[in-house]
Description:
Elements lengths: L1 H12 L2 H4 L8 E5 L2 E5 L4 E2 L3 E12 L5 E2 L4 E17 L2 E12 L4
Antiparallel strand pairs: 1-2, 3-4, 4-5, 4-6, 6-7
Amino acid sequence: KEGMEGLRSMRDTGWQSVAGLVSGTPYFVYISNGVYVATTSPQIIDNVYTRTATIAPVYRDNNFRIVSSGGTLDNETKDITVSIAWQEGSTTTTRSVRTYLVNLFE
């Protein structure tokens, strides 16, 4: 949830901070100087957790419904997946959440 909140906070300060992220690239979202930022440099949380956020484009059909293939690119919406992973013995556990972020303020 914190990763999603971080991306929402980034969006709220300027859509380009989210829209400018490269699709498919894993980003590490963290707080720097009191604001959320995204970097491609790994950030380990509490020396245990690795949180990544991946951005994907969104396409819509003629009725403005989101479609999985075809459609027209919607530059005002991004498909966001945030995952957190941690090591338990020799096993890595991962949990993910997915949502859409829209450009609300510009």
